[in-house]
Amino acid sequence: MLKILGKSPSINVRKVLWTCHELGLDFEQEQYGSGFQSVQTAEFKALNPNAMVPVMIDGEFVLWESNVICRYLAAREGREDLLSSDPKRRALAEQWMDWQAGELNNSWRYAFPALARNSPQHQDPALIDAGVSEWNRHMQMLEEQLQRSGDYILGDNFTLADIPIGLSVNRWSMTPMSRPALPAVTAYYDRLNQREGFRLYGRNGLV
């Protein structure tokens, strides 16, 4: 049985859970992370020395880094619709997944904990304003991509790239802050909500 270690509220864990749903995979989940089982134990660090979630255990195979886990599972199941074996098509999906994990995620590093979680360590007004501006700038990049591509990140069909991006759109939409009107992003968000996996693990009231 496939095992996923990580707490359900984590955006990165939810990437993997949503991917499992799209693939129709049965899995066992164990809740690890802040507020749940500790990731600081020797046993957990033997699985992931970064002491972070999620971790996937597939028999004797252990894997960490959420985007890599999603790619592995899609490739393991031979889901060409989600992750193409064509090098160029696959690279485009991975490009947007890595952009989400690096550029987009980094844009909200200060603003999100300040505005969504009221973190005492993130209360500098100037840094909050700068963070909101940077976050919205990256979302404008997504708007422009969707205007070019159509229904989904890579075109008319849902792919693996839409899972991390969809979760990030949910986070941006639910954080109390000023946002520009981005009609293509709004339509994309509503379109994703038609998928059961997104309703379970994306637009589910968690950020």
Topology, please?
Blueprint: E1 2-5, H1 11-23, E2 27-30, H2 42-47, E3 55-58, E4 61-64, H3 66-76, H4 87-107, H5 111-116, H6 125-149, H7 162-174, H8 183-192, H9 196-201
Parallel strand pairs: 1-2
Antiparallel strand pairs: 1-3, 3-4
Q: Kindly report the spatial arrangement of strands forming the biggest sheet.
A: 2-1-3-4
Please state the average pLDDT score. Answer: 96
Number of strands: 4
What percentage of the residues does DSSP assign to strands (E)?
A: 5-15%
Describe this structure in words.
The longest helix is centred in the middle third of the chain and has 25 residues, at 125-149. α4 packs antiparallel against α6 and α6 packs across α8. The chain has helices spanning 11-23, 42-47, 66-76, 87-107, 111-116, 125-149, 162-174, 183-192, 196-201; strands at 2-5, 27-30, 55-58, 61-64. The model has no long low-confidence stretch (mean pLDDT 96). Strands 2-1-3-4 form a 4-stranded mixed sheet, with helices on one face. With 207 residues, it is of the alpha+beta class. The protein contains 9 helices and 4 strands.
Notable features of this structure?
207 residues, alpha+beta, four-stranded mixed beta sheet, 54% helix
